Amino acid sequence: MKLHVKLIAAIIAATFAILPGFSQKVALKSNMLSDVLLSPDLGIEFALAPKWSLDINGNAVLWNNGDRRFRHWTVMPEARYWLCQRFHGHFFGLHAIAGQYNVGNIGHDFPILGFKDLASKRYQGWMGGAGIAYGYDWLLSEHWNLEAEIGAGWIHTRSDVYPCAECGNKLDSGYNRNYFGLTKLALNIVYLF
Description:
mainly beta
């Protein structure tokens, strides 16, 4: 976990280090789809050039629901190329994905991600990957936009597997899984500064 925290801190520090040389246009955003699923989401996007921006988005679930466990955090930096002008219209993005998870004792399996028998097992580990995206941003007013985005790519996960949500004895160590498919689905409400 410490390596991932250091990576995120380095990405954020590098972002703020390069900003003074570029435009001061900044947007705060939240993915309403993620928020509805009780995985609070927050993002910030910086204008880098007339048709380029850097979006950094993250979400997290850091609590348990009784004996059920579905905790995670993810961060997703994305370089965006806008076809017309930044923060308006069509754009294409290239994103990276990093995060950690601890999921178990829930009634639904996620076999596409390699999580099986979640009613009796717990998976704890990290993920990383990359993808490409397409999106569109609608102007609602001078400061408010609505943005839709879909992306696809690759995610690699590595987990330790435990027999139950609270147990400490490992069943498997270094359980690896590769996933190719949908990596991003967003309907963002955006506030522009």
